[in-house]
Amino acid sequence: MIYAEAHRALMDSVTRFVQAEIDPHAEEWEAAGIFPAHALFRKMGEQGFLGITKPTAYGGLGLDYSYGLAFCEALGNVRTASVAMAVGVQVDMATPALARHGSDALCREFLAPSIRGEFVACLGVSEVGAGSDVASIKTTARTDGDDYVINGGKMWTTNGTQADWMCLLANTSDGPVHRNKSLICLPMRTKGVTVARKLDKLGMRASDTAQIHFDDVRVPRRFRIGEEGKGFLYQMEQFQIERLWGAAGGLRKMERAIAMTAEYAAERMIFGRSVLDNQVVHFRLAELQTKVELLRSLIYRAVETMLGGEDVTQLASMAKLTAGRLIREVTDSCLQYWGGMGFMSESEISRMYRDGRLTSIGGGADEVMLTIIAKGMGLLPGQRRNH
Hints:
By secondary structure, this protein is α+β, with helices and mostly antiparallel strands. The protein is 48% helix and 15% strand. It has three domains: 116 residues, Butyryl-Coa Dehydrogenase, subunit A, domain 1; 106 residues, Butyryl-CoA Dehydrogenase, subunit A, domain 2 (Beta Barrel); 127 residues, Butyryl-CoA Dehydrogenase, subunit A, domain 3. A four-stranded mixed β-sheet has the order 1-4-5-8.
């Protein structure tokens, strides 16, 4: 992936926006456990940031995903990863299937205002008994005339307390688990939708995450995205974008952690010299920076593969797996060189350490990524390989 001048210009615009509209509020929003999504998203919508890869017919810029990657990478330098994650849900987790498979009327009703930042979107897939195992979800959407009647619930829903609509995955029939699901645009203020509670999390604390209940929620069947029974397939497509976002969003974050640590270690004196002067320290930071560049190359290759129309499942899974493990390694190693200050909640490196842990869980745990990769290699029990 070679960024052109237009990509660089976009990244510069994102950086300026982050410095002006997000970073000054980072500590306040982290302490509050929420950020004003509607106010911020409207500002981002005015800049065109929420529809970079979305169709121009609905207010998007209609650009290919190399620009989405540039946006994600630049946004990753924000001082509160919580906000970057919430933006990621809006642009690359809750809306790709709608943009790709939704009817014109549905896109005008839900996608267009999401691109403008007037609507906040959330994704309803995970449940208490079905996190990484998407096929085992229990939420149902029963057909009743021209409506669906929805019962069940969703868990760990990012943007859940503020969202205007949910991209909901539900069982719409009793058929095979991979062919009985549909994606539905669900307005969150519909009767029977209840935000059961705002969840208290280890990290990503400025992002509101909710448990949602559905009790005989009635929505028109025209709110279904694409064909009935293809929801699992559509969600798997969305997961590939989500995993690329999750991987790319950590690049600048890790580089920031390394740079911050180098600066702090240069000033921190122990036994008459700076911590950074110890070879074990500056060698370790050099090694970590090298690993970040290796991950960047993998992500860029994955995006190029996707832009070429090829299946990106293997590379996206590898990138997401690697990113989740590397961000843990980077933040853990860097925090160590901060000593006692690294263990203080007030330290940004401490927040990076806590926030980064989610990368190996959200969007499919490491073990799921390994299963996907092993399956692609023909290594799972029951698979046969020709040598």
